Amino acid sequence: MVMQSGFSSLDEKVAMLDDVVSGVWSVAGEPAGRYERVARECGEWVARAEGVLLRQKKRLQQQQQTSPTNDLDQDEAAAAAAAELELIPPLPPAWHEEAAHLARRLDDWRRKLRELGQLPSSSSTTGTPDKADGDGNGGTRPEQPSLARILAGCRALVHGMLAELDTMEQIQRDVAATEMLWVRDMNRHGLGGTDEGAARAGAIWRAL
User: Fold this and answer.
1) Is residue 125 part of a domain?
2) Which residue intervals make up region (Disordered) (predicted)?
């Protein structure tokens, strides 16, 4: 069974491709465009998060080297740890809204590019000459039609941006998971590592 593409002519395909290319260019083609802004802000956030994670690691090492000798010392250690607690500030809601909006638009363009299927191949034989064969005869390889190149390039760009947006979201989840492990370790070491101590003292959990 042959699926119908929904296009009655090549002109309709070209019109849709032009619409998609214009849309993609509007968000990704300019240095200060919306996609570039989202990617830059996420990159800056990652750099800040790396610095905080490094300081958290050092703080945990200091906490592990502290050995409270009594309940009062445990309380003081927990209070000091809570006072020095540095958490990674999340990306603002505006960033998430912008990223979600871009993802929806890119997904819509990906769907349209999929509907376009393959553009007709050129029947022209002009193109890049092949190397000569053993008899000294050479041939020609037909050039890929310009519309087909545009379609392939646009698909690659859209898929790449969607993959990058997914990666940005995954990085944020990984950072949050790493920080949560740090908080648990700080809580455990700061309170002597016992549930009884956690019930008595002001745990780091309560500072969150």
Assistant:
1) no
2) 116-144
H helix count then E strand count, the chain: 6, 2
Q: Which range of residues forms the domain containing residue 77?
A: 18-28+48-116+145-207
Q: What is the mean pLDDT of residues 168-194?
A: 82
Looking at residue 207, what is its pLDDT?
A: 45
Single out the residue of 167, 175, 174, 173 nearest to residue 52, CA to CA. 175
- Residue 110's contacts (CB-CB under 8 Å, 6 or more residues apart) are 155, 158, 159, 162
Question: Which value, in Å, is the radius of gyration of the alpha carbons in the chain?
Answer: 29
Q: pTM for this structure?
A: 0.70
Judge whether 43 lies within some domain: no
Span 123-151, pLDDT tens digits: 443 444 455 455 555 555 444 458 888 88
C-alpha 138, offset from chain centre: 47
**Is residue 129 in a domain?**
no
- C-alpha span between 187 and 202 (Å, rounded): 10
Report yes or no: 204 and 187 within 8 Å, Cβ to Cβ. Answer: yes
Residue 36 belongs to some domain of the structure: no
Number of domains into which the chain is organized:
1
Residues 98/33, Cβ–Cβ less than 8 Å: no
